[in-house]
């Protein structure tokens, strides 16, 4: 009876992990599409300024483009860089799922990826804070940039994520040490 219960629990765990992996892939692909579209549209607007009226999903930066090209490039660079960083973060998440091994879960490779994820989330949070301050400074100078806040309004969440994932990476490193000690004593 106990073996049957363990078998059912294992299948349930596998199902949950597979579902999380599929969801991670979907998010990763979506973020890649968004980053690619933003990058393409940014480049396109530099040659065809008419496209600044709808850079991406209704983002209208035509006034900024016409009056301050350098600030337009700065704001769009922040938007594109954030999109690329978020896509890379989910690439790392997908990498964890592909390299996960439940026989020996505490591997150096996984620990390094998780640590990279924490640094990546921190970079996203910091860039979001900087971009938000930059946009607010432009708003005080009379530019309409409220639509851009959607690209960096989750800085607090990424900062918290960075802290949590960093703690998890430290736990993984401790798990590796314990696993190696166990292997040496056997």
UniProtKB/TrEMBL annotation:
Coiled coil: none
Membrane-traversing stretches: 20-40, 69-97, 117-135, 155-172
Pfam family membership, one: DUF2975
Signal peptide: none
Keywords recorded for this protein, A-Z: Membrane, Transmembrane, Transmembrane helix
Record keyword Membrane present: yes
The protein, known as: DUF2975 domain-containing protein
Organism: Flavobacterium ammoniigenes
């Amino acid at each position: 009876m106990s073996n049957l219960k363990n078998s059912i629990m294992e299948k349930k765990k596998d199902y949950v992990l597979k579902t999380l992996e599929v969801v991670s892939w979907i998010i990763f692909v979506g973020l890649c599409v968004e980053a690619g579209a933003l990058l393409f549209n940014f480049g396109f607007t530099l040659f065809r300024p008419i496209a600044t009226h709808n850079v991406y999903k209704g983002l209208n930066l035509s006034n900024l483009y016409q009056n301050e090209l350098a600030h337009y490039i700065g704001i769009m660079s922040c938007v594109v860089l954030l999109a690329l960083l978020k896509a890379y973060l989910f690439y790392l998440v997908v990498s964890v799922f592909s390299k996960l091994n439940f026989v020996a879960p505490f591997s150096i490779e996984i620990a390094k990826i998780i640590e990279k994820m924490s640094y990546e989330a921190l970079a996203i949070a910091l860039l979001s804070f900087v971009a938000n301050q930059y946009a607010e400074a432009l708003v005080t100078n009379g530019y309409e940039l409220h639509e851009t806040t959607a690209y960096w309004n989750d800085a607090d969440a990424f900062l918290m994520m960075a802290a949590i994932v960093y703690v998890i990476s430290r736990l993984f490193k401790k798990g590796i040490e314990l696993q190696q000690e166990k292997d040496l004593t056997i």
